[in-house]
Each structure stands twice: as C-alpha cells, then as structure tokens.
Write a structure and sequence with these properties.
By secondary structure, the protein is of the alpha/beta class. Helix content is about 40%, strand content about 20%. It contains 13 helices and 9 strands. The chain starts with 9 loop residues before the first helix and ends with a strand. The structure holds S-adenosylmethionine.
Length: about 260
Amino acid sequence: MADDIWADLADRFADGAYASVKGRVRTYVMHRQLLEHLPPPPASVLDVGGGAGHQSFPLAQAGYDVTLLDPSPAMLGKARQRLQRLPAEVQRRVTFVQADGENADEAVHGRRFDAVLCHGVLGYLERPGPVVDQLCQCAAAGGIVSIMAGNADAAAVRPALERRWDDALASFDAKREIGVLGLPTQAHTVDELSDLLRGRGVDPLRWYGVWLFVDWLDFSGADLDPRDEKQLTAAAAVELEAGRRDPYRRLSRVFHLVGRKTAN
Ligand SMILES: C[S@@+](CC[C@H](N)C(=O)[O-])C[C@H]1O[C@@H](n2cnc3c(N)ncnc32)[C@H](O)[C@@H]1O
C-alpha cells in the first residue's frame, strides 16, 4: 500500500464535508437509492474504499452485516471512532479490513457478498478497471454492485458556477480536475462504467444523479445551514426526485450506478 494520502484529509472529509448540507443530502439520497435494490437485512455488504463509514454505517444501523475495506489507516481510524458512538449491536455488525480495493477478494478470503459498494473511490485511481474487477468478483451471484463516481458529462458545472469561465470552457471534454478535497480526481461516464460492469458479469440496472441544486447553490456561494433541519429535509426530498429523472440527473456532478451480478 502507498503512503496514506488520506491522513491529512480524514478529519476534513469525515467531519467537514459530510456535516455540510451537501454531505447530508448525499448520505440520504444514496441510502434511499441503495435500499431500492438491496435484499433485506441481515444481507452482507462489502464497502470498498468505505472511508469513515458514512455510506455503510447507516446500513449496519438498518441491520445489514457490513465489512468496510479501506487502505487508509487514517480513514479506518476515523471509521472506528465514529462506530464507537453507535449502539453495541450496530458495532457488532461491522468488520474492518485494511487493504487496497485492487486486492479486495484476497483480503476478504474469497467471501462473496450480497452487495458490494464503491462510492467516491474510482476517481482517485489511475484506472478504474482493476478495482471494478474486484467489486464484481466479490459480489455473490444475484448480488448488487453499487458505484458512485464523478460525472464526466457534467465537468463544466463546477468551474462555471465558480465563475472560472476559462476553466469551464476547457473542461467540456476533460475528465481530470483537482477535486473539492484538493486531490487530483478523474471523472467517468455512466456508459463507460456500465461497459466495465457488463464485461465482468454484472448487468447495469439503474443509474441516478446524487445531488444537483444544493451543489449548484454551494458552488455559486449560497450559505446553506446544515442545522436548519426543515430546509435540509425539504431539499433532500427534491434531490431524491431530481436524481431519478432526466434531464436533472444528467447534470449532477456525481452519479450512482447500480448493477446485479448474473453469474459467478
Ligand atoms: C472520498 S473517500 C470516500 C469514502 C467513502 N466511500 C464514502 O463515500 O464516504 C475515498 C476513499 O477511497 C479510499 N481509497 C483510496 N485508494 C483506494 C484503493 N486503491 N482501494 C480502495 N480504497 C481506496 C481512501 O482511503 C478513502 O477512504
């Protein structure tokens, strides 16, 4: 495993980004989208690049048996800290594994899972193929593979909203940018990742946008207060609906692709 580039970012990501309106909307929308496809608890879930557990701990709270795999000791440390704040029976449903996604199958000793998640990870890798291989391999026959990734088709949205017009013009056909956490990131398209899944025995079922309006408001400088629960709940309901349908979902900077494994 390489140096832990997440060591300096773990707090900012886990406590900062996720505590914002955008972070809370993302957690809500992704969770609701996932529940449309997951078998009922206590099905098993492998969260590859699971970070501090924001996506999989809500599943453990709902009764799922969660394995969180991540290469970063700092992120795993953050995840352990956050898990300690949850009830003991939820803690018992979560297992941590320190490994790269590229070695997931070996790290989980060949176990097969009812669902394999990989959210916000592929964009930090040189190539998505090796990790997508492992996601598909670790899914049981009939199991779900869930990927969240940056949307290359909406690359101009962020620079345009930040009024960086030259960058926006240059970004229409670009896939790389410095992401919101300050790391180089790469975006993908739904078609590209769907093809990768198909080539590995996983049929794409559905794709969603993850957020739209709260992202636009944030980048254009609006002050969104995460303590205003009423506004937050109302915004999350709108985002959930926008993420399901065209043309809105196509403009979301992040997409959520869900597939089902057909064979072993
Ligand atoms: C932006 S965070 C996303 C965390 C979590 N999936 C979420 O959605 O909250 C990216 C995570 O990818 C992990 N990561 C980086 N390289 C990885 C790799 N090769 N395999 C698996 N995870 C990786 C990082 O350690 C970090 O926890």
